[in-house]
Amino acid sequence: MSAEIDMIQRLFEVERESAELVHEAQKKADEKIAEARAQAETRFKEEYAKVADKIENSEKQFNEECLSAHTKAISDYKKNLSSLKVDTNAFEQLVQNLIFA
Fold first, then answer.
1. What is the C-alpha separation between 49 and 1, in angstroms, rounded?
2. What's the chain look like in SS3?
3. pLDDT tens-digit series, residues 34-89
4. Could you give the CA distance from residue 36 to residue 29 in angstroms, rounded to a whole number?
5. By CB neighbour count within 10 A (0-12 exposed, 13-18 middle, 19+ buried), where does 76 fall?
């Protein structure tokens, strides 16, 4: 009977050791997963920042190009207007024809 009890105790001991090994393995796996997750998040943030900066720079450049084109168009329009000859006689004649005709 003593041999049977010793065997059962040994089986309990093996089971406890196995449980400890599984627990330690799970703990190490959780640590590796947490480390990998932290590295992935860091890399994601770095890549995200690069892409965001690239998009922001493209947008700034586009806005500057639009502003430049708009400024040039307005300037050209003002030059065109200032170069036009004002024909007051023709305007007065048109008004006379429209109002008093």
1. 71
2. CHHHHHHHHHHHHHHHHHHHHHHHHHHHHHHHHHHHHHHHHHHHHHHHHHHHHHHHHHHHHHHHHHHHHHHHHHHHHHHHHHHCCCCHHHHHHHHHHHHHC
3. 999 999 999 999 999 999 999 999 999 999 999 999 999 999 999 998 888 888 88
4. 10
5. exposed
Amino acid, single-letter form, for residue 91: F
